[in-house]
Amino acid sequence: MSMTTLVILRFLGIFAAYMGVTLALPALMFRRILRGRSLAEQFLMCYTFGNFYIINIVFLLQLLHISNFLTLAGLTAVLSIVIGGRVNRIPLKQQAGNTWHLFGKLLRGRMKLKSAIFLFLGKCAEGIKRLAKFFYRHIVKNPIQSMLLLGIGVCLCWIYGRQIILVYGYRASDIPVHMSWINEMSRGKIFAKGVYPFGFHCIIYYLHAVFRFDTYVILCQFFFAQVIFMHLVLLAMMKQLCKTKYIPYIGTFVFLLGNFWSGQTYSRFYATLPQEFGMIFVIPSIYFLIRFFQIPKQKLANKETRLTLQCFAMTFSLTLAIHFYGTMIAGLCCIGIACGFCFRFLRKEYFRRIMFTGICSVFLAVLPMGIAFATGTPLQGSLGWGLSVINGGKSSSSTETEADEAETLEVSTGDDKNTVRVVKPDGTVMEIDVSDLPSAQENESGGQTQTETTAPAVPKVSFGEKIRKIPGKAKNALSEMSSRILEFIIKLDVKNIGYMILASFALLLLLGLVFCIFRQPGYGAMLMSMGFCMWIVTILLCAGVFGLPPLMDGARCSIYYVYLLSAALTALADGLLYMVLPLRKLRLVRNAVSLAVAAAVLMGMFQNHMIKQSDFSSGFVMNGVITCLSNIIHENEDKTWTIVSANDETQMGVDHGWHYETITFLRGMETLEKNTKVIIPTKTVYFFIEKIPLDYSVTYDKSGQSISRKGASRSLPNVGGIGMYQGEGRWIVMSRMYYWAQAFMELYPNEMKVYYEDNKFICYKIEQNMYHQYDFAIDYRYNQNKMQDETAEDTQDETQQQSEATNETQQQSDASGKQEAGK
Q1: How is 186-241 classified by DSSP, letter by letter?
Q2: Confidence of residue 574 (pLDDT cuts 50, 70, 90)
């Protein structure tokens, strides 16, 4: 099987497993509640509950230290049956009795196996019939929307999905860290490096533990599933909030295809990371909160209200359980929605419910982390920093200032006016006669005595003057906002594009107010909420410029900004079209116009070359490495092989084999002595060597150069962490490793073979006799002592040549001197 086919099959398996536990399972459990709802709302509710359900099952079993395949699968099945039975009003005892009676008849021979098989096939046929009805109702009967949805899928595959088959590795340097945390969960150690939002890690661990996908495979490919659901969630929310049928597809296509967005707003989508996974749940939290405020006061006591609040609690808790950046954005959006629905938010019927729900959602997310912290697990570094920023913690500079102030001496005047009493930090008291100081003598000579210093008077600014300054300050603020939008968000060469985007936010507020005046408060307040949300997130983007605490740097904030901006512009387009064609009788015309607008936008983007051109590359793992690792795992028994490579494979094959660091391997033979040995006690040993070493996110002058003898002759990097595997250090290490392999292959030509090779990577393989293992410590001409000896010999030769040349010159000068004397 080719590697391309393998990675496609792997992704399809991962995607099907994830969809099964987050969509199909909740759809079965809550089919009575979901009946009669739109497909978009069913999707949002199922996806929310499915992720919340799986994450908290993993948290529970991990904190009890009993997490494994049996407990995870068993608890998932039992809880699904119990919850599904109660929700769908199925008498579980009666069903269990009927099933037991059926098995009893089969075991006693009263029912033939053929009859049992036909009965089972009949149940399967009913399920297939339901799926066919679902497909016909939502796909066949809506051909235009189905074609648009298919177009979104094709574009997703072209822009993001191709990376799976073109680049097998991952595209973020912090993925090995998350991989190690997930691997520790397989050993029952959640929060191995400290308390941290582990919702993302719980999902990856569940797919690994229950469905038996290797963790490194999931982390290399799951990003595409994240991107798919990121766009589907955006589309589903806009389908629920908009009055037109096809305008929501415009926003999704613009967010997906536009190359006018700044590169950092979507570059991280090619990697499986917690922040991008948590971003998916910001949109559902916005939707369910808006949906709650759209419920009239008379219907607040209904079950629908409780269900909406429960969904909001789950989505908001998921943002905090996965990544606190998502919680910041979701929290700010909640403030914007509260401003948009202020006429309802301030009423006690709404206020009490939403505040209680918010507290419960935070409690649900913090509970697992709180239990771990209470039992002695410290906070992980980044979480501690995040909490300090949220709580208004001071920066390191302010801490240093406080430390300096703590060292300040206490000074007081003594009994004599010319004496000052100084109290040192250690408590000792010392009196100084200030009359002897030069400054005092200068004052006395000038006939002046310095008694006290008064601060210059600050002129009072009148209230009218403050009012007159407001337009200027507002203009400056808008200018700063526009420049930040141009810097971080959009790169269109259009004059005043930043001001246009800000004007669209103001237009959302105005349009929403108009709809509220014309007695459509639910829709109007939704538009106003979108406007307020974007103004608040824009202030967050400009926080440092405005002197506010920068809760998030501009590059990270821009990722959320573009996501929300696509939703806001979609709502604005929908509002404008609905204002022009508001009547129910004009719904067909409105939908036709929305379809024409969608087609025009797409055609304009294609004609003006506004489509993203993706750069498929990985600066961290080569395709050859993933190919070799997959084949090694498949061909060998577990724990019978070792890979000697850079640090990345340490966590990749941890469940199947062993790993030996390249730098440790080379340092072990730097100074060859009689007792110097490098032994690797496994049956098979593989050596991963990059012929054109990666930079690993650190570039240098000659980045991209091939390994060479010049690189091998350089000293090994003497740095910690992964510094020896970055930039020029990686080139030196790989050069050394390559020439070691060549020297070892000369010694053992029949034992050491080339296992895999391409133009950038080579893998060597050697089989060992476990009763007579190889000593890999050899002299390969570039060991430190060997290079020193060769350098010393070269120096000695040069010195000898210089000495001989000097003697010859001296002899020639002596001979010429004798000739002169003879003359």
Answers
A1: HTT-TTTTSB---HHHHHHHHHHHHH---HHHHHHHHHHHHHHHHHHHHHHHHHHH
A2: very high
